Amino acid sequence: MLRLLSFLAPAFLLLTGPSWASACEGQQVVFEDKFQDDAGGWSIRDSVEVKDGSFVLKLGPDDMQSNLNVTFTVTDADICSDAVWPHGKQPMLGAGLLFWGEDNRTYFQFGILNNGKFWIARKQDGKWLGTIAENVDSTAINKEPGATNTLRVKTNGNTATFYINGTKIREVRAQAPKGNWRFGLSGDNFDKQEEARVVFKSMKVTN
């Protein structure tokens, strides 16, 4: 991402658990990972931990981490994942889905912030080209510490449709990659002094 800068509903989500299993509507499951281990085809490094039902991105101060899946590709897809904010006091954080990924330097990113905003941006050859949607307010985002948010991107040709917790928030037309492309996860920490973590609890891709 470019470096830009209800009480009952979140509680109900936490009690009932994530809704990722029903969020993606495609008929065929292409990829499914509940993050019980690190065998799901992710790039494992010091900043990434995948085990015990969690995909954790460890973020340094003013840091962004992205992770495209290495072993699965798609053409059109419905991508869903549950992101969970940390408990307690936290800096401004972002949790996102990556799609239309050609490699680790070229992809689109859709993410939410724990201040109730979302963004959509494009990275090309390692450089951010700009934001399609920049820090847009959305009441669909659960902001409370410990809250779960289900992110979803549905692609069809050159069209991508974006959902937060089941609410459609944007549709975009853009140039999709020719042939197969990759999907992934991302995290952003906007605190310039403190480390942070962004956690995902599951991911599912259908077509």
Question: What are the salient characteristics of this protein?
Answer:
disordered N terminus
Mean pLDDT: 90
Order of helices and strands: HHEEEEEEEEEEEEEE
Can you count the helices? 2
Helical content (DSSP H or I, runs of 4+): under 10%
Secondary structure class reads mainly beta
Main sheet, how many strands, which sense, barrel? 8 strands, antiparallel
Q: Can you tell me the residue ranges where pLDDT is under 50 for at least 5 consecutive residues?
A: 2-21
Using only CA atoms, what is the Rg? 15 Å
What overall form do the CA principal axes indicate? globular
State the end-to-end distance: 26 Å
Strand percentage? over 45%
| Total count of strands | 14
Q: Would you mind describing this structure in some detail?
A:
The protein has two helices and 14 strands, in the order ααββββββββββββββ. Strands 1, 2, 3, 5, 10, 11, 12 and 14 form an eight-stranded antiparallel β-sheet that branches. Strands 4-13-6-7-8-9 form a six-stranded antiparallel β-sheet, with no helix packed on it. A hairpin with a 3-residue loop joins β7 (106-113) and β8 (117-124). The protein is mainly β and 207 residues long. It is globular, with a radius of gyration of 15 Å. The protein has helices at 8-16, 20-23; strands at 29-33, 48-51, 54-59, 63-68, 78-84, 93-103, 106-113, 117-124, 127-137, 148-156, 159-164, 167-173, 182-189, 196-206. The two termini are 26 Å apart. Helices cover 6% and strands 52% of the residues.
